[in-house]
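I'd like us to work through together how a protein chain folds, taking it slowly. To get us started, please write out a protein record for me. Go ahead whenever you are ready, and we will take it from there:
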Amino acid sequence: MKFAVVFLTWLLAFPAVAQKNWTASCLTNMSQLDDSFPGDLGIFVKSLKDGSICEFQADKRWYLASTIKIPVAIALLKEVEKGHIDLQKKLTLKQSDYVDGAGDLLWQDPGKSFTVQHLLRNMLEQSDSTATDMLIKLMGIETLNKTTHELAPDFAPLTTILQVRYDAYSEIHPKARTLSNMDFIELKKFPVSKRYEAFVKRIQVPTSELKATSIEEAFEKYYGRGLNSTSLRSFGSLLEKLSQGQILNKKHTELVLTYMQKMKTGENRLKAGLPNDILFAQKTGTQVARMCNVGIVTSKKNAQQKTVIVACAEKYLDQAGAEKALKKMADALTEEGAFKNF
């Protein structure tokens, strides 16, 4: 009888031991992955069921790229809940609205109208930058930053996607601010290796006046300003509040998470290393030598079993290599048993 009691006690305690082990091995594995990666990696992982956490370089500030579209969606829907914006309101697409990047709005003719909800869906499912900037203009950049700061004080000021172009290219020469949104769309057609030359040709200034010698150098200088950045822990906290229904009402929480689950980018990043029998509401972001993938993993068997993941890579030379690194991070989490009870 005594042996049976001892064995039962051990058996009941085993899940907790396993959980402790995955967090310990997680830190070791993430450190090893970072050591072998030609750049820097960071991750924040939190089980919302038992509160266990794995974090590596999670306090460091990371440039977020298009993952800022999650706080944009949240701030927009907060305005909807206040009665300031109607999701069925129609906005007319103007030529000045186009922003280079993903999304099918780039292929729509000026003069077409789209509901706010359509733009919201495009922003989260397609990472549509044109839709993003139209929504930011609708609510106002001040409202976006005020709401984001109230929910996650560690977030640096967020800007429109087009403003990122102006700020980054101005690190080469201030005349970048005289370009139009359509100029940046034309520049995006060039590979990064040819884009610097195309930009210099477009602004027509003496070489002696240039402050950066490459697109990569210009963006590194821009990143140093700290805009559109936060710590991985802070972003994780925002996702936790969102998934727990602490920010938006139930209808709008489900709307955001549904759109994130249908996201059409990032198949080779975290998602590729996660178990198949889960739901992953996610958002990716990519910029020059910067990549992030954030999201909420939910068990299909138990909707209360959720895990938040925020992962970023920076200062790498190869985008495909950065994607593989993010996949390896998810592979490690899966192998360590982070989703064993899902």
Q: What stands out?
A: DSSP finds 13 helices and nine strands in the chain. The two ends are 33 Å apart (CA to CA). Residues 262 and 286 are 18 Å apart (CA to CA). The longest strand covers residues 278-287.
